[in-house]
Structures are given as C-alpha cells and as structure tokens.
Amino acid sequence: MNAIWQTGIARLHCFTTKETTLKLVESIPFRLAATSALALAMVACGGGGGGNDFATAGGTGAAPVDPVVQNPTAPVVPPTDAPETPVVPTDPPEEVADTSFDVYYNVCRGTNPKCFNDWGAFATTPDRVLIYSRTAGPRHANLGTPMASGLNPAMNTDNVMQAGLVRMLKDAGITADWTEDVTVLTSRINNYKTIIFASSNRDTLWNGALPTTGTTATSQDAARTALRNYMRRGGGFVGLHNAFGAEYNWPYYEGLLGNANFYNHGPNRSGDVEIIGQDPSTEGVPARFTFQDEWYNLAPFPTNVKFLAKVDTNTLQPLTGAPHPGHAGFHPVAWCQYYDGGRAWLSTLGHNTHSFIANSTGPGADAFQKLVVQGVKSTMGLTPFCTE
C-alpha cells in the first residue's frame, strides 16, 4: 500500500499545478504521510518526462530505477621522482702521521723513499766506491798499518779489511778505490756512488793540519760539509764496525748511523746471527749462521730504520760487557735507512781478520761477506734499497 500511495502522490504532483498540490497537502495527516515520498516524487518528475513510468499488470509495478550516477574520475597525478636519499657527510679518513722528518737531526730519514733525493746526480758515475779507513783513535788490528796519504796508496800486508773489501767488490763487478787521506775524501767524494767507512773512528773527518788563522786560514771540518752535501745529492753510505765509534760530537753523523752509536762491548765471542729483514741485501744469506765478533752495545739505540739482522742473545756468553746491560731479546747487528737524501746501510759486525779473508775458515765469514757486498750494491742503486 505504501508503494501505491507514494506512486499516486508522485503522479498527482506531476500532473497538477503547484497551487493544487499545496491545497491537497494542507492537512497535517497528509503532510506526514506524504513527507516520506516527497523525495521520490521529485526524482520521478525529473526522470519520467510525463509518461507512464510503471507497468501495472497484476496490480503491481516494478520499482523505479535510480539513474546511474558516475563517480567522478580522480585526477591523474603525474609520477614524480623518488626523493634522493640525502648523503650523510662522513669524517675524512685520519691522516697517518708522517714520521719521516727527524726534528732532532733536522733531516728526512727512515724507510720512506720520499727521503731519497733522486736528482740523477750519479746517473753517469761508474760503478765505483771509495773505502775510507782513516782512524783518529784506537786502530783495529784488521786495518793494519796506517797507509800513506793520497788515493790508492800501496797496501801493507796487514791491511786485511781494506784488501778484503776490494777483492769482494771486484768479484761483484764493482771497482773500489781506497784512502786514509781526509783531503782526498773531501775533494773526490762526489766521484763515487758509495763511500764505505771501514772502522774509521773518532774525529775521522777533522783535519787538524789546516791553519785556522792567518792569510791561509781555512775550515778544518770541510770533510763534514762534503759528506753532508754528498748525502743530500743522493749518495750512498756504508758504515762497518768501528764506524760506530766515529764523530761522537757531530749529531748529523749519529743520525746517519740510524740514531745509534757505539757505547762498549763484551769479549770477542761467538754468537748466532739471524736474518730478520727480507731485503735485496739479505737475499741468499743463510737465515741463521754462527759468527764471531764483539757484539757492540749501542747508545742511543737505532730508531726508524729497517732492521736486517740480529744476534740471538741466548747464544752470547756473556751477554754484555759492564756497565751496559746489553740488548737482551733484541740485539740488532745490521739495518738500513734513507738519510737526508741519500742511502745508508749499517752493520756493527767486522771486528775479526778472518771475516774478510777469501775462503776463510772463520765462522760465518762467507755469509757476512755476501751480506756486506749486497748492502753496498743496494746503496749504489744497483739493486732496490731498503725495501718496505
């Protein structure tokens, strides 16, 4: 019934004037009954066009069909690039402290090749070295009788260390000159790729014979200046045995030795040398060999160098000579470093005569001679030097 009533109201509303409709609905009951159908009647007017909107067969009709309402299409939002992930700044890597400049000796020294002045100063220099064995203090027996002045003076039969070095180097294809004349060293030093200090000791670079007053006054330490400038132009230096007993009062020379100097030694005795640094100068040398020497105690102790060989202190009887306590556990006997533009290879070994004789029966002589020759070659630039 409600559906029929509502349909009638809709028809009445559609086909009567507005005034008639208002009169019919003035009564309160009618208003209440018609209110619920009012919205539907308004829809029917707008969609029926005045025609018969319903089929009435059998007294029933199909319910009105609501018009299809299209949902508005959402606007297409163009894709945008994903926001970039912000780059979080990171702390710069920590710089490794450069320890190659020694503020005490005022030079660049150590194992960093940056301390080498590759100026090409010796590019055309023959493979020649100078052996310098002048002593200004106690003289080792294997140096023999002091030589005459000049370059390559006649050797005495007891100049065993010098003669042995000349022979060893000649066998390696290297020409060796020799002198104990400080003026020769001063004037000719730049003619050689390497200078070998063969147990030259005390004030070996001092020339006290030169006048310091009058019209001919000159510097008595010209050899020091010559050696320093030689190193700065990329020269090579090899210091053997009592070269550690030289120039005590010249800090530059102490630095050249690796911040090291001779203090004292125990008795001349046997001990086992151990190779501890892989390097062209140690290549082919037995990893361990028995040797005889004085085993120098050092003060100061070498720093910022590459250690090449040490003595096993468990094999030293006694360990040391009083008052120095010795270097128990780690007693180096050979090392290398770049120094103030040049190359320096050092060893405290070389006290005994038999260590320099060809085909020697002395303990470890062959191994020692091989080590020295290869050390000399590396300072000359014939093989890589003091490799890191």
Order of helices and strands: HHHEEEHEHEHEHEEEEEEEH
In terms of DSSP E residues, the strand content is 15-25%
State the CATH architecture of the largest domain.
3-Layer(aba) Sandwich
Average pLDDT over all residues: 85
| Main sheet overview | 11 strands, mixed
Task: Give the proportion of residues in helices.
Answer: 10-25%
Query: How many domain units?
Result: 2
CATH topology of the largest domain: Rossmann fold
Q: CATH homologous superfamily of the largest domain, by name? A: Class I glutamine amidotransferase (GATase) domain
Distance separating the two termini:
109 Å
CATH C-level label of the largest domain = Alpha Beta
Rg (CA only):
52 Å
* Overall number of strands: 13
- Count helical runs: 8
Structural class category:
alpha/beta
Query: Which spans of ≥5 residues are poorly predicted at pLDDT below 50?
Result: 7-25, 47-62
Multimeric status of the protein: single chain
Q: What's the shape?
A: globular
Structural description of this entry:
The structure is a single chain. With 388 residues, this protein is an alpha/beta fold. The protein folds into two domains: 49 residues; 279 residues, Class I glutamine amidotransferase (GATase) domain (Rossmann fold), CATH 3.40.50. The protein has eight helices and 13 strands. The strands form two sheets. Strands 1, 2, 3, 4, 5, 6, 8, 9, 11, 12 and 13 form an eleven-stranded mixed beta sheet that branches. Strand 5, helix 6 and strand 6 form a beta-alpha-beta unit. It is globular.
